[in-house]
Known about the structure:
Blueprint: H1 8-20, H2 26-33, H3 37-51, H4 64-67, H5 71-103
Helix pairs in contact: 1-3, 1-5, 2-3
Amino acid sequence: MANKHYPVQFKADAVALYRSRPGATIASIADDLGVNREMLRSWVRLDDERRGVSPRPVREIPAADEAAGTVEQENADLRRRVRELEEERDILRKAARYFAGETRW
């Protein structure tokens, strides 16, 4: 299997996507983007070292009945989810353009 080389911007976007989703795992983000899980994990670690911070702590995901307290809180949660999905979509579009360009002769 040949090693794939990803552009720096793609790596940065993948790490940003992982950091923007508190409940997400490296495995889920890597699978969504179609990259190796260990590769994404190494990008996150390198970014942590570059920024001089400790790795992202594991957070508990609140139960559904706790998360949807008030209408305002639910609206804020939904707006946040929309932003996350738009960011994921944009990253996947960039990845598709990159890989489409890689297959052209």
